[in-house]
Specification:
CATH topology of the largest domain in chain D: Cytochrome Bc1 Complex, Chain D, domain 2
Largest interface: A-B, 63 and 73 residues
CATH architecture of the largest domain in chain D: Orthogonal Bundle
Largest sheet of chain D: none
Order of helices and strands of chain C: HH
CATH class of the largest domain in chain D: Mainly Alpha
Structural class of chain C: mainly alpha
Strand content of chain C: under 5%
Strand content of chain D: under 5%
CATH superfamily of the largest domain in chain D: Cytochrome c-like domain
Structural class of chain D: mainly alpha
Shape of chain C: rod-shaped
Number of strands of chain D: 0
Distance between the termini of chain D: 78 Å
Largest sheet of chain C: none
Radius of gyration of chain C: 22 Å
Number of helices of chain C: 2
Number of domains of chain D: 3
Oligomer: heterotetramer
Helix content of chain D: 40-55%
Distance between the termini of chain C: 53 Å
Chains: A alpha+beta (180), B mainly alpha (485), C mainly alpha (57), D mainly alpha (274)
Order of helices and strands of chain D: HHHHHHHHHHHHH
Chain lengths: 180, 485, 57, 274
């Protein structure tokens, strides 16, 4: 036989090592991002009964929106339902840690905030929680991104990021969007 | 569309391979026809319910939205039809092995059988979801749905299903394209290893579709992310092996130097042209996929047009264009006539690739900027979205090109039968020979027993607790939302 | 291995050897460039889109 | 290099060696992947967020420990509607006795709602046909609890038990839907038809029929409005916009009605479908 029968196996092996190396480089970058700057998927397994959300507790109608607690932590609670967000506009401070908590009383929804890494599914039966920080002020679009029924396309909300100086909680620690 | 086009194509191509590569008749052709009829009946049921507005739940179902039971039963029939195909493929391979003891199964058949094995594993998730959760809810036997469980079961199917769609294209890359280009397959063993890697790594990775879901923990998400990184490896191996195979063809035709062989390839042959265009689109599709699977990075693009762009590139582009090329390649031996116009076939392939690029490329950028998918209308008056309009127009233009190309494809196949000019009875389809045809094949790469054990172990590791948790933690369920009454 | 009917009688081992002394350098070059560009594109998105969008989780 | 030159046993041995090597490699990868995903990543990440290693690993496996115990908002508030679709309520509504409901309707409701469910005063008394049992039950329950304010109805409902409500819901949900011709109503403007069938994304207004069509798959308690009196729909939209009716879940209808102009409300929706 005129050509070396193992030469192709050698080339293949060299290529395979290079490719596994390339995959490992990406993996390393991903793991680093998850550990050091904390860029992780939202994975907070926390159950809540979708049928009685509105009766009592954290997600009753009057408790929604942004609230600053006694320790100064900012939490924004939003209910996604067919086919709107409640509330449709929330205010959050710039350069502060913000915790979003989303629930659904009916079907699967999902949302993202345009231009940020905020992205989560909202599954009935679970609280979806996202910790984040905004570094620029402005109104950001927050559309529903998972098909939730025939009114899905019109399900849109906004996140209004304001400088800390303009972020003024009332006596109950609550901040809401002004009428627009 | 995704289910029906692929399932029927793959079944047909599998039957063709089983007869042409093994050179033995198909076992139980009547059963094959039964599978086909089940598929047709199921498709009619699905299409009828969707068109009459009784199944506005899309093809990922989205429980607790619940459609007419006829919709789900139709899907079950399609899947059952494809299971018949799987069994026939495995029986055909075993018969051949019994008749040719100690001989390696021809690569095309081995890969087709690998796909059948993969599909049997893949469909378990959606079959369990439909039979035990969704269909009882659709008939009204149950009032609530464990949404986390249904999403997890669907994710079991959701990723491996695309490998089921993809593998026929890879079969063409490895076993048809090098032969069509006049060369040899660079390495038969590497091809087998790639198909096995698809089988192993394609299954335990479905949770990467649920990175943004609240019902799974960081641990299982991250191990499935790592396994997903590994699933890029067989594609990267394929890129090299197929490129090297094409290089042998180019050099045998007189190509010299580092890149001279590329120009020497017979690009006028549709199979060669399609392989080139397919690899070009695979780059973009693979790029989108690498971003999708990168754990935290998924947050930038989850459920946006980016994802649509990714699978239009990789499936609608690189895979479907190979389906076209395979159809052109095998039609002469099915019809008993030569192609009336290879030029029209080339035009059709070019239109498809250009249309798909023009349609999908803008979606990457729009998706990265927050254009969500599965939405019927946007508020283009909103300043944050007004700049999308021209890009959507570009995308739409690409869509029209695709429609023209699809129509031309149908004409190209019809023309085999209507034009008198096509007359010469062509030679039967040949499969590529390996560069070193006598390299011994380990028994493990000539069967699936060992690999099934590993799939079982990996699936158990990746999915056992993520599914069991719904029975252990018993999360609150969601009430069924009927969309058809 | 392969069916004898599949084998092209024109391509003999000496023919292969005569033509394939450079192979697979072209495949290494072409596939290598493609994969390198892929990694670069991935890194661009990672560094210039993903990281600036800030922490979540 | 043909296999024929070798004794069969050596090929079999080589195959076995291949299988063993591959098995070892796959197990090694699986173990490393497991360690990285369940130990290294969660522990390192847990250190920066103040979780001890044990908790971090448990959380990585998803053993029900939320990331942090959030300060629960403790502000007590009366729900807009106390109707909840828990399993008890769903079962009660499903098992309502239509015959008992018919007798009760004859005594209590027929004076205003008429025996066939079609009222004589379309502006203030709705058609009660073509509605699901859940839709009827929800409104009866809310009015009985005073969450939807209606003095006339409250007086009647005070006399009724929850079982009576489910029976009435069962009876009225079985009445045939009112048949009517859209063309008889000249108030329907093209704009209203667009809002009803397509909505308006610039105001985040979903199409009315995304929920109120009988086959829409909207919220469980949503009333189908294809047979409702236009005048009644107008008064209810006005009440939602003014905030005098507020028993809708999470203010969905209040927000929608609030975004509509008075002219749009006047141009009522009545779906052009059977």
């Amino acid at each position: 036989m005129a050509i070396d029968p193992l030469s192709n196996a050698r080339s293949e092996r060299r290529w395979a090592f290079a490719m596994v190396g390339a995959a490992m480089m990406m993996l390393f970058a991903i793991v680093w991002a998850s550990l050091s700057p904390h860029m992780n998927p939202p994975s907070n397994i926390e159950n809540v009964d979708p049928n009685t959300l509105h009766i009592a507790g954290e997600f009753t109608e009057d408790n929604l929106g942004t609230q600053v607690d006694a320790k100064g932590r900012v939490t924004t609670r939003i209910v996604t339902s067919q086919f709107s967000f409640a509330p449709e506009c929330v205010v959050v401070p710039q350069d502060m840690q913000v915790t979003f908590r989303f629930v659904s009383p009916d079907v699967i929804h999902g949302l993202l905030v345009v231009g940020t890494n905020i992205n989560t599914m909202v599954v009935p039966g679970y609280v979806s929680q996202v910790h984040t920080m905004f570094d620029k002020p402005g109104d950001m679009l927050m559309p529903c991104h998972e098909f939730c029924g025939l009114g899905h396309s019109q399900m849109v909300a906004h996140v209004r990021v304001v400088p800390i100086a303009d972020f003024k909680p009332d006596e109950n620690g609550r901040v809401a969007c002004a009428e627009h | 569309m995704g289910y029906v086009l692929t399932t029927f194509f793959i079944m047909g191509f599998g039957y063709f391979v089983a007869e042409s590569a093994l050179r033995q008749p198909l076992p139980a052709p009547r059963l094959a026809w039964l599978g086909f009829i089940l598929g047709i009946v199921g498709t009619v049921m699905v299409v009828a319910t969707v068109l009459t507005g009784h199944a506005s739940v899309m093809f990922t179902f989205y429980p607790p939205l619940t459609a007419s039971p006829i919709f789900y039963l139709g899907l079950v029939l399609v899947v059952v039809g494809s299971w018949i195909w799987c069994v026939l493929m495995l029986v055909a391979m075993m018969r051949w092995k019994r008749a040719n003891p100690g001989q390696p199964v021809p690569l095309a058949m081995y890969a087709t059988a690998a796909n059948a094995v993969l599909w049997l594993w893949t469909t378990i998730g959606v079959a369990v979801e439909l039979l035990f959760v969704v269909i009882p809810a659709a008939f009204g036997w149950t009032q609530t749905v464990d949404v986390g469980l249904t999403r997890t079961l669907f994710s079991w199917t959701l990723h491996a299903i695309v490998y089921f769609w993809l593998i026929p294209a890879y079969i063409a890359f490895y076993t048809i394209a090098p032969q069509a280009a006049g060369g040899r397959l660079f390495s038969d063993l590497m091809a087998r290893a790639s198909f096995i890697l698809f089988l192993l790594c394609g299954l335990p990775v479905g949770l990467h579709h649920l990175f943004m879901d609240p019902e799974h923990s960081t641990g299982f998400k991250s191990i499935q992310m790592i396994l997903t990184v590994l699933v890029a490896v067989p594609t990267l191996l394929t890129v090299f092996t197929v490129t090297a195979s094409m290089e042998t063809a180019g050099r045998l035709r007189g190509g010299k130097g580092l890149f001279g062989w590329i120009g020497a390839l017979p690009w006028e042959r549709p199979m060669v042209l399609a392989t080139g265009l397919s690899f070009f689109m695979l780059w973009f599709g693979g790029f989108g996929g690498l971003i999708n699977m990168s754990y935290g990075m998924n947050a930038m693009v989850h459920n946006t047009s980016w994802v649509s762009a990714h699978f239009h590139m990789i499936f609608g582009g690189s895979v479907v264009i190979m389906y076209f090329a395979i159809a052109y390649h095998i039609w002469p031996s099915l019809a008993g006539r030569a192609a009336p116009s290879v030029a029209l076939q080339r035009i059709q392939l070019w239109l498809w690739a250009v249309g798909m690029m023009v349609m999908s490329m803008p979606w990457h950028w729009l998706g990265l900027n927050g254009q969500v998918r599965r939405v019927a209308q946007f508020d283009y008056a909103d300043p944050s979205m007004s700049w999308w309009t021209p890009w959507m127009a570009v995308s739409l233009a690409g869509g029209f090109v695709l429609v023209v190309s699809a129509a031309l494809f149908i004409w190209n196949l019809v023309s085999f039968h209507v034009e008198r000019s096509a007359g010469v009875y062509p030679a039967p389809v040949k499969y590529a020979t390996a560069l070193h045809p006598d390299q011994p094949v380990p028994a493990a790469l000539n069967g699936f027993a060992l690999w099934n054990v590993f799939v079982l172990i990996l699936m158990a590791a990746a999915y056992s607790y993520p599914i069991a948790q719904f029975f252990i933690l018993n999360p609150p369920q969601a009430v069924v939302h009927r969309v058809d009454r | 291995m392969n069916n004898p009917a599949d084998t092209d009688p024109d391509i003999t081992d000496p023919t292969l050897a005569a033509h394939l002394d450079e192979a697979p350098s072209g495949a290494f070059a072409l596939a290598g460039i493609a994969v390198a560009l892929l990694l670069v594109a991935w890194a661009i998105i990672y560094l210039f889109v993903f990281l600036p969008r800030g922490p979540v989780g | 290099m043909s296999t024929d030159n070798k004794p069969a046993t050596s090929t079999a041995e080589a195959s076995r060696a291949f299988a063993v090597t591959v098995s070892a490699a796959i197990f090694a990868i699986a173990v490393m992947v497991g360690l990285l995903g369940f130990v290294v990543m969660p522990v390192l990440e847990g250190q920066t967020t103040g979780l001890d290693s044990f908790t971090a690993i448990c959380r990585a496996f998803g053993i029900g420990i939320p990331a942090e115990q959030n300060a629960r908002s403790s502000k007590p508030s009366a729900p807009a509607s106390s109707t909840a679709w828990d399993s008890a309520t769903r079962n009660d509504v499903r098992r309502g006795d239509a015959a008992a409901g018919a007798a009760l309707a004859q005594d209590t409701c027929a004076a205003c709602h008429m025996p066939n469910g079609l009222s004589a005063d379309p502006a203030s008394v709705p058609s009660t046909t073509g509605l699901s049992a859940r839709a009827i039950y929800k409104q009866l329950h809310d009015m009985k609890r005073g969450e939807r304010v209606n003095e006339a109805m409250k007086g009647m409902l005070d006399e009724l038990t929850d079982q009576n409500l489910t029976d009435l819901a069962a009876y009225y949900s079985r009445l045939p839907r009112r048949n009517h011709d859209i063309r008889a109503y000249n108030e329907v403007t093209p704009n209203a038809v667009v809002l009803a069938t397509k909505g308006d994304v610039s105001r985040a207004l979903p199409a009315c029929e995304a929920c109120h069509n009988p086959t829409a798959g909207g919220p469980l308690e949503v009333p189908a409005l294809t047979g409702q009196y236009p005048a009644y729909i107008v008064t209810q939209l006005q009440a939602y916009a003014a905030g005098t009716r507020k028993n809708d879940l999470y203010g969905r209808m209040r927000r929608i009605a609030g975004k509509l102009t008075p002219a749009e409300i006047a141009a009522y929706y009545d779906a052009p479908r059977p």
